[in-house]
Design a protein that fits this description.
31% strand; 21 strands; 7-stranded mixed barrel
Length: 349
């Protein structure tokens, strides 16, 4: 059993790009007051990072956008796990896998940068981030200005105290989490609740696609480009509730997928809803990604949810890092000629 640390460690933010926030599993039960849940854009990756450290799956973690983040530890070592898209991670200049667990020592420098795939990654800490919940949750809803740290995105100089902190692995390890490999080419949806607003050929066109993820998306919505759809019965309906993953089709005809920071109600018809297990798959799609939707029935959606839950039923396996490739940045930072000798056996200067 790992002994608890007597000190109070902190995660210190050295720099943060736009959109780095604190997210737990979300703020549920307040939709009737117009408050949506917030929570992680990729719930599976968020839960994976927490599971790797033995935290509750919904524990508060840093959600890191393409802008990246740089952090260090203060007051003691901090156990950390990262999981999500294929971000570029480095610890004191040494590259790490995009999904990894390690112990961040005081003064060490952890850098998280956007990589070749994925839009979000999650930095969980071993223990509990010491935050006061708002309406029972620490999830940051920046548009509403509450949750997280003062209801805002994180920035340089912020310090996050950790209660019941624990170190991570003595040496960095890669997380074995194959379920995080989720190309976005196909996104499963349940049709409705207003697909009857569209003629059959328009429903077929919606499913045939392809649709391209644009670059103007954020935590509120994912915007799609392609051949616009037309409405058979107009595009204004009586406003009703909006679930995460609901696909609205406004008058212009380009679908909009509502995400974690969506509004609570809306008056455009919803042709379909992305199933829960594919929300993270869609959220990780960078601008320019082409995708298609596939309609599934409720039974397939439930089976997918159960399969996802099974992946996180036990501990997340880890593998020690074995260096087989070295980047130019890594090699340039090392003394590669130390120990060279001349013909007489003496060390070269």
């Amino acid at each position: 059993m790992t002994p608890k640390l007597s000190m109070t460690p902190k995660v210190s933010i050295l720099s943060a790009g736009p959109g780095v926030t604190l997210q737990d599993a979300g703020r549920h039960g307040y939709l009737r007051y117009g408050i949506t849940a917030a929570g992680p854009m990729d719930p599976l990756a968020h839960a994976t990072a927490n599971r790797a450290l033995g935290n509750p799956l919904g524990a508060t973690a840093l959600e890191v956008s393409l802008g990246g983040v740089e952090v260090t530890a203060e007051g003691g070592p901090v156990g950390i796990a990262l999981a999500g898209g294929e971000f570029r991670i480095s610890l004191d200049g040494t590259p790490m896998p995009p999904a990894c667990a390690l112990t961040l020592q005081p003064g060490s420098h952890l850098v998280v940068r956007a990589g070749r795939a994925g839009a979000w990654t999650y930095l969980a800490v071993a223990g509990r981030l010491d935050l006061a919940p708002t309406l029972g949750s620490t999830a940051t809803h920046t548009r509403s200005g509450f949750g997280g740290l003062d209801g805002r995105a994180l920035r340089a100089g912020d310090r996050l105290g950790i209660a019941e902190g624990r170190p991570g692995p003595a040496d960095p390890h890669a997380l074995v989490a194959p379920w995080l490999a989720r190309p976005a080419e196909e996104i499963r949806v349940v049709m409705g609740p207003q697909d009857d607003v569209f003629a059959e050929d328009q429903v077929a066109a919606f499913l045939a696609g392809p649709w391209t993820v644009t670059t103007k998306g954020d935590r509120m919505a994912c915007f799609l480009d392609g051949t616009p759809l037309t409405h058979a019965k107009g595009y204004n309906i009586v406003s009703d509730g909006i679930a995460m993953g609901a696909i609205q089709v406004p008058g212009e005809g380009w679908p909009i997928v509502l995400m974690a920071d969506r509004q609570s109600t809306g008056g455009y018809p919803k042709i379909a809803t992305v199933i829960g297990p594919d929300l993270g798959r869609l959220a990780q799609a960078q601008g320019g990604t082409r995708l298609r939707f596939r309609a599934v029935d409720r039974a397939e959606a439930v089976a997918a949810r159960r399969s996802e839950a099974q992946a996180l039923a036990g501990p997340v396996a880890m593998e020690p890092l074995i260096r087989t490739d070295f980047s130019a940045e890594f090699l340039l930072g090392r003394n590669l000629i130390g120990g060279v000798v001349d013909g007489a056996g003496a060390h070269a200067p």
